[in-house]
Amino acid sequence: MITKCLFPAAGYGTRFLPATKAVPKEMLPIINKPILQYGVEEAISAGIANIAIVTGRGKRSIEDHFDNSVELEFQLKETSKEHYIKDIQNIIEKATFTYVRQKKMLGLGHAILTGEPLIGNNPFAVILADDLCINSNNSVLKQMIEVFDKYKCSVIAIEEVPEEDTNKYGIIAGDLIDGSNSIFRVTDMVEKPESNDSPSNMAIVGRYILTPDIFDIIKTIKPDLNGEIQITDALLRQAKQGNVIAYKFKGLRFDCGSVRGYIKATNHIARLEGLI
After folding, report:
1. Which of 56, 179, 227, 260 has the fewest CB atoms below 10 angstroms from its CB?
2. In the chain, which ranges are E strands?
3. For the chain, domain boundaries
4. Beta partners for 191?
5. What residues have CB less than 8 Å from 147, skipping those under 6 apart?
6. What's this model's pTM, rounded to 2 decimal places?
7. What digits encode the pLDDT tens for the residues 220-270?
8. What whole-number distance in Å separates Cα of residue 160 and Cα of residue 47?
9. Per residue in 14-60, pLDDT tens?
């Protein structure tokens, strides 16, 4: 059973400077909710109430957001504006939040390893809030938990991308299993290959279910040429033992780590809410 979800949220958000000089990129709003809140809501909708967040310097507003604001609540109580704060109050009531600070930015693998004290020796979910995933009927993370419950090994979300974009993602190769057209047993994994070297056009996106042995594997991974520890290297170790499933999820994904993707996500949510 998956009871905890880890959110790496220590990055600098350089592609959104100067906006992210003082505001964490995870707190940039899509309409009236921070990007991170959409991810937390997805975790809660999948039945996860323990939210673990890896933060860094300048991220205090994340903790403040997922905490009670006595003064604000008092000012809005029994007014026509009280409903504006109900969504976040419901989240605070339903979920427990814990935090740990990543002291150095050494890649996603290192960020996940930093979260080990919050996770313990249990399988857990990972959401990268930059990837806003939308499925109104069955959240992407809930779909992945259903896959995990069947195969009992690490599960990664994938989607097909244009061949010219493979150098922006971790790319997998794998074999379809159990007569499915969306579930693969991963056989290989490459971080950001050029199109002519890419094993496929199936890209890893920011949703994972990981088994706890991933922590010991990450500890043995050497940094890449940029000094970062890549989670794909650790997952490849598991994949070589047949212990990684790739799942082509049902739903939409927006890359809110890019300005273009952030604008697309904002417009999509605005249309869903009847604002445009």
Report:
1. 179
2. 4-8, 29-30, 33-34, 50-55, 96-101, 124-127, 131-134, 154-160, 170-176, 183-191, 202-210, 244-248, 252-255
3. 4-272
4. 170
5. 155, 183, 209, 245, 247
6. 0.94
7. 999 998 899 999 999 999 999 999 999 999 999 999 999 999 999 999 999
8. 27
9. 999 999 999 999 999 999 999 999 999 999 999 999 999 999 988 99
